[in-house]
Amino acid sequence: MSAFENPTIKVLHNHVSVREFSERPITVDERSAILEAARASSTSSFLQVVSIIRITDSVVRAKMAEYAGNQVQVLNAPEFWVFCADYHRDERVCGEADLGWTEQLLVGCTDSALMAQNTLTAAEALGMGGCFIGGIRTCISEVAELLKLPKNTFPVVGLTFGYPAVKNATKPRIPVGILCSENAYREPSDDELTDYDHTLCQYYTQRNPSQPLASWKHKLGSTLQRERRPFILEFLNKQGWALK
After folding, report:
1. 168-218: pLDDT as tens digits
2. How many Cα atoms within 13 Å fall on the side-chain side of residue 68?
3. Are both 112 and 161 inside the same structural domain?
4. What's the pTM?
5. Are residues 124 and 161 in the same domain?
């Protein structure tokens, strides 16, 4: 059997973001299996600096949807989890912990991302789909207050998931030749980047012919300006992160 036929590899290759969900419920057994997959995630130095907050209260869901930019999927998804970097728990166990270092911020973000990805992969392996919600950081102070997050914690990313009602075709990623260099960074050529931009334009045209042609360059520009969030560092410092 080719490695490409491995069931886990196929799940990973077929990933797409899912934002519309069917009414099919997630069973307790399925949710428990997904949570155990999250719990099994790799963690730097076994610090285990992630906490998951599962949002089930309808009022809290509504506020989270609002804070995330009025994203309907946050309101309607069968499951919505928030992954938080959490050194508060470690500090309780180890009172002499030396916190506030920028390296700890990187570890907290990395561990949170690893756990969030494990969660989504487990859900996709069961036939579900989902979407990461970085928009929760747009109102990060309000989210932290709503979720009663203590010092030395912060919300990294949200995740909606459930059984898909609509599932788009797989979006073309950056080609392997651009993505992967050997031994040192390789600058991609203008032609390589232009060819990829053309491929992505074709994908968006096929997905929604009625919309104006969208280039990768255009999407990069609008997203990079929209998601700068200049208040993040002040919030992190207030929470005890990246002080040194």
Report:
1. 899 999 999 999 999 999 999 999 999 999 998 888 888 887 776 677 888
2. 25
3. yes
4. 0.95
5. yes
